[in-house]
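Sorry to interrupt, but I need a hand with the structure work. I would like you to pick a protein and set down its sequence and fold. Please put the record directly below this note.
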Amino acid sequence: MSKTIHLTHRYDFHTDLVWNVATDLDHLKRVTQSLVTFRNLPSGQIFEGQDLHVDVSLFGKMPYQPYRMTVVEFDGVQRRFQSSEIGAGVKSWLHTLQITAEGDGCRIDETIEVDAGSLTPLFAAWAAYMYRKRHALRLAILKELSEPNASD
């Protein structure tokens, strides 16, 4: 049994900047830090074929559990990626992110397909909450990066 969540968020920032933030593992740590803590997560931009074996902890308080994330698709031209994830009670977590230019900004469309057996409704609700929360934190990162002297 799986459940699919669709989310759309709009950004008043250039698509390249949003893409760079959305595909950077250091930014992933920041946008999930209050919800999920990672151990053994490398730095840098994700890439197709990347296979990450990490440990995750809910809220940084629960015991760490093994988790595997594989980047199955990465298209920098189309600004689209897909990851396949498993572990910590998840049988399958398929995350697709697509960035589309809109006027002076862009939007991110995300689809998360979750299968956690009998706990699927709970994990799907968690996914919807977590990805909505990431939006606000991603906005803060984008604002920081867009400020004058942000690279100084």
User: Anything to note?
Assistant: The first helix runs from residue 15 to 22. The chain has one domain: 3-146. The mean pLDDT is 95. The chain is about 30% helix and 40% strand.
